[in-house]
Amino acid sequence: MSQQQKHHGSIPKGMHETKPKEFKKTLLRLARYLKPRTFQLVLVVCAAILATLFNVISPKLLGDATSSLFASFTEGTGVQFGFLGQITMILAGLYLLSAFFTFLQQYLMAGVAQKTIYEMRQEVNEKLTRLPLKYYDKHSHGDTLSRAVNDIDNINTSLQQALTQMITSVITIVGIIVMMLLISPVLTLVVFITVPLSMLAVRFIASFSQKHFGTQQKELGDINGHVEEMFTGHQEVKAFGHEEKAIQQFDEVNERLYQSGWKAQFISGLMMPIMTFIGNLGYVFVSITGGIFVLNGTLLIGGVQAFIQYTQQFSQPLVQAAGIANTIQSAIASAERVFSLLDEDEETEETPASIDTGALKGDVSFERVAFGYDKNVPVIRDLSLHAKEGQTIAIVGPTGAGKTTIINLLMRFYELNKGSIKVGGTDISELSREQARSMFAMVLQDTWLFNGTIRENIA
Q1: DSSP strand pairing (380-387 vs 364-371)
Q2: What is the strand order of the sheet 418-423 is part of?
Q3: Which of 55, 144, 151, 246 has the fewest Cβ atoms surrounding its Cβ within 10 A?
Q4: C-alpha distances in Å from residue 349, one per residue of 126, 132, 222, 433
Q5: Which segment of 13-17, 72-76, 99-103, 199-203 scores lowest on mean pLDDT?
Q6: C-beta of residue 379 within 8 angstroms of C-beta of residue 134
Q7: How many other β-carbons are positioned within 10 Å of the β-carbon of residue 452?
């Protein structure tokens, strides 16, 4: 078995290098997966608008109730229980409607996310069947599994949570701004002083944390690859006393995963306290300014109460946006890894040749064959051999001599650099891969049983 084949499960060189990320390009590509479900997304937005609208109106009604109570005591008119009862009933109805549309929004979004991920998972699975053998030689099995399973699951979680929260947050912010302007444009301007600070904080922190989220996903793939490799070859690890070396390699990869993980979480975790701090500043400014307006009669006390509630509600979606930014960064890092897999070069589609392979003789010949897994590092130079029909031939040699490479070329797992391979006088490059492989029975040295019956495994 060649060295290239022997180490197909190892972590390739350069895996740990941090490459520049294309956030916007990946985000737009991910958004294209949602395009077929535009109608459902429109319904999600409509449900979010209605759920948010009912929530946004309630502080104004509570403020009116407070103003009514305050007026009844200051003016001695008595408490207007009918008016308060009416407001209470309206609020109960609004809260019930808000809960219903929130449920509808979550239900629709779950369907959108699951269907999108279903198609993405299907696309990845089909891609894996079209990739050439050299891809699996250069990438660890665990890293490939991590892209096909862990990264897609991460995208699924992010779609279902982040997208819903993002829609709700945007609509909430717009609705609250409208209500605040109706109560007091001046107080609204006071709140808006904190908005640029919030945006700058999110952008600044996100620029640092994004690269660590990308590295975290890569290291997760590496550690999956190492664990898969060590436990698949557990007998070899035991037989050759490789336990300590395996543990040392695991510790090194685990340490890198720890370092990238805590950096990503720590830096992104700064968003929440910073956003909360900025939101509290706005709350203080509104309380002081609103108190002055009540004293000079510019604004009713219920209006200030409603405005304080809106200020708290306004800061909440901004804080949520900070959390959404973390989730989206993690999802984009996963999406980049999945898209890089989907963008790998595939085996070119071939049309079967109009040749009856069953009629070909069993003579096999290699004529001046040259090949290298890396074109700059040749493994075989000017190889010629001829096996006649009916002969039994054994190819022997030390590990790395090229025995498996010869079989790989015969089965067209790889293409030649130079020369030709002929079966029955026909160059196998003239046949499709399926035609070429149908002429051979290949028994691998490592047994592998697929899930199923003995008959299905033999077939």
Answers
A1: antiparallel
A2: 380-387, 364-371, 418-423, 426-427
A3: 246
A4: 14, 12, 31, 9
A5: 13-17
A6: no
A7: 9
**d(C-alpha 271, C-alpha 259), whole Å:** 19
Separation between Cα atoms, residue 212 and residue 264, nearest integer Å: 5
Residue 168's CB is within 10 A of a number of other CB atoms, namely: 23
Distance CA 109, CA 371 (A): 52
- Residue ranges matching CATH 3.40.50.300 in the chain: 357-458
CATH 1.20.1560.10 positions along the chain are 3-342
Alpha helices in 233-270 (DSSP H): 234-239, 243-269
Half-sphere exposure (CA, 13 Å, Cβ side) for 170? 9
Q: Which residues contact 327 (CB under 8 A, 6 or more apart)?
A: 157, 158, 161, 162
Measured CA angle at 88 (ends 84, 89), to 5 deg: 120
Comparing C-alpha atoms, which of 53, 47, 49 is closest to residue 94? 53
Encode 253-278: b = buried (16+ Cβ within 10 Å), e = exposed: beebbeebbebbeebbbebeebbeeb
User: Which sign does the torsion angle of CA 14, 20, 25, 30 carry?
Assistant: positive
Q: Does domain 357-458 have CATH number 3.50.50.60?
A: no
DSSP 8-state assignment for residue 186 = H
Q: In 3D, which of 153, 341, 146 has the Cα closest to residue 224?
A: 146
pLDDT in tens, 440-457: 887 777 777 777 788 877
In the predicted model, what is the mean pLDDT of residues 394-422? 86
* Residue from 118, 114, 106 nearest 44 by CA: 106
Number of Cβ within a 10 Å radius of residue 219 = 22
Whole-angstrom Cα distance, residue 49 to residue 34?
20
Q: Say if residue 100's pLDDT is above 90.
A: yes
CB 105 within 8 A of CB 165: no
Residues 337, 233: Cα–Cα separation, whole Å:
26
Is 194 in contact with 312 (CB distance < 8 Å)? no
CATH number for the segment(s) 3-342? 1.20.1560.10
Q: What is the pLDDT of residues 143-163, one digit of tens each?
A: 888 888 888 988 888 887 777
